[in-house]
Please model this.
Amino acid sequence: MQDQEQSQILQLKKTRTLATGLLVAMAVLFLVARVLMPRYPQLSFLAAFSEAAMVGALADWFAVTALFRHPLGLPIPHTAIIPRNKDRIGDSLSNFLEHNFITQEIIRDELRPIDFAGAAATWLAQPGNSKAVARQLVRSLPALLKVIEDDDVRQFMHSRLTAALENTRFAPAVAEILSVLVASNHHQALFNRMIEMAAHALEHNKDYIRWKIHENSPRWLPKAIDEKLYHRLLDAVQSTLDEMREEDSEWRLRFKRMADNFIEQLRNSPEYEEKLDALLSEILGHPLVRNYMLRVWHDIRARLEADAAAEDSQLAAKLDQGLRSIGNELLGEARVQKKLNQWIRIVATEAIVARREMIADLVARVIRKWDADTMSRKLELHVGRDLQYIRINGTLVGGLVGLVLHAISRLF
Model:
């Protein structure tokens, strides 16, 4: 920025010197022509040219100078236009920018040719780029973890989480999840698992069942009867389990009705809602659970910090692979790219246009903060060089006009 300003200053000085030098040259030509005219009458054309050129040069010098300051320091009315109207110019520029540049049509047209998704996908598909992004994200982990560990931040997050949990109805959400599972017949898989668990328990506890029957039988009862009772019990249980395994058994229908009833209670019963909330509060507030979660968090944090510091970070490698995969897959999905570009254009356009008053107001506020001299200097550096060429053109055009008028006067 400093180099650009210095370059503008040098260019302005050069063109200003050229314009002023041309004015001085016209003045010298005029004096020489007037002195030599008695001896060389044809010099009247040169005198007319230089005289008119001086008038044009002085008029344009006055006009250009009056924009930025008082000519010769004299407080002539309607001079120093820019310093005197600094705030009004800032407001006008702000209004012009808001209504002629930051509009839905212009922003949308400017963004339409840009392939945001394609450019991002191509960039991410390059191994060096995806690796650099992944590494930078992983390196930022320790700083993020420190922020989370900060007492104020942790207290804020805890209070927000607690408030969110208090305002969340878990029972209806659980009911919806269970209804989806039941609709997909996942409850039948659960029922089958329960049958297999019962069959497994029966198979591996036969000796214990036999012992319990013998233990609770009267001492006078023959052992043979105990054995028959034991086998009949096993047969009855096994028969019941086989019956439960059948696809259209009454047991399955009962289990389905029980599941539906439980889902309905979760949806509509305040009692179930209160019980579930109380259960969650008790679990989350229990010291054992809190201490366990704290230990788990410290272990996770230590592992993350160690991995982030390692040169061969596994997390960075996985992230690199994932980013590159996203880039490569997106390159082959023209329809997805088109939709993403459309979404980005809509979001960007809405975001910019919605804030156009704020953006435009920034121009007016910055200009108001400048003093008059700063405002004049900045504008003069940007347009002053072209204005000096107006002085040069005014000198030459004025001289030509004077020459033509002199020629006409000589003819008549």
Q: What stands out?
A: The chain has two domains: 2-84+370-411, 116-332. Residues 116-332 form one domain. The two ends are 59 Å apart (CA to CA).
